[in-house]
Amino acid sequence: MSLFFITQAFVLAAMLIAGARGIPMNATAESAASNSLPRLVVAHFMVGNTYPYSVNDWAKDIALAHSKGIDGFALNAGRDDWQPARVADAYTAAANSGTGFKLFLSLDMTSLGCSNSGDAGVLRNYVTSYASHPNQLLYDGRVLVSTFSGEGCTFGTGNTNTGWQNTIKNGLPGVFFLPSFFIDPATFGSYPVVDGFFNWNGGWPMGNYDINFDSDNGYLNNLGGRAYMGAVSPWFFTHYGPDTFNKNWIYRGDDWLFAQRWEELIANRNRVDIAEVITWNDYGESHYIGPIAGAQPMSQAWVNGFDHQGWLDLNQYYLTAYKTGSYPAITKDRVFLWARLYPAAANAPDSVPKPDHADWTQDFLWAVVLMTAPADVTLTCGPSTQTTHVQAGLSKLKLPLTATCDVSSVVSRNGGQVLSFRPDGFHFNTNPPSYNFNAFVAASP
């Protein structure tokens, strides 16, 4: 999805607490196509960022993702002639892992050709090469295949549905086709080749408002009994100038986007068959939750020094609730912190202008805390400090960032300090060196 072209279409909130173990379900939900199948959580993986990868590099990512409860990777494959070899290495590493970790193709149709029948060969070869692989993700007994875009692909036929039918279904092992087409859900009935739909843009609010489930409902109300894959993402910022990819905007990540989005999916888990985390390693758009590795797509200016692995454990907490129907027991006090390091309104000496929609975000430290028992949580950055009494369970807190400062947090209980977390490098600077709207993320051990 590294070149995607989606149309881009405040509050001093009080603490929100979600400590209950049971998960409320949407009583009015339509039944999903595969309600009897287990809920899965996969992560979108940009093969385009793996040029220097070896099988061992894939093995490291697979081991880490598996250890955090992720079931598989959606391999975003594009047109580069070296990418099929990296996909093969990924399947080799998955097989060697002995974990049962699954893989499936997410065909990047903003990169791969699809205008004539000859373009179908690459896609069909991917399906036939891995259909019987032990680590190929099968859904409802069929080879799961997804896409990024592809709504305009005809493969030389008269329409999109026939083109995909000829390419992804006819003469192939059984395929469960679950694409991300950027189309009006009201037209879903025109695509009988599709077995389910992936709502890519459901992962972020498309305007200056909090994330909500409206986009999902638009899909769900038009599926006609087919499967639904929902997106969850922690952030979005891309900063390419006209001389490169010419992508320079943010989506609104305020108000604990990652946590809020997961809570929506969990509350509607009887309607959402698969949750796809966007992404494991898309550095160019700043929504990676895996380690910074491989070959960055000219994104070093806003990615280097901004590790996001602090989100991995928070992701594990939520995905456990999504997959099982119950939030896991909290056995250790944890603090998760993230924020931009520079004021949104500040000017910077940057050759690329301030990103579009910069006014959609406010200068706050966002915190999610997991507490084993009631406690007092103090967040501090320079003159801004706040102490909140929270209950056992998960609580969401925020702190205004107003001056150059270092972020710290303290958890106290029964008159004593039980946790002090001052992340290295978490320094808010009111004089930004560039327009970097990426998130700095940290999690206590």
Automatic annotation (TrEMBL):
The keyword Signal belongs to this UniProt entry's keyword annotation: yes
Signal sequence interval, chain numbering: 1-22
Keywords linked to the UniProt accession: Signal
Keyword hit for Signal: yes
Full protein name: Glycoside hydrolase family 71 protein
Upper lineage: Eukaryota, Fungi, Dikarya, Basidiomycota, Agaricomycotina
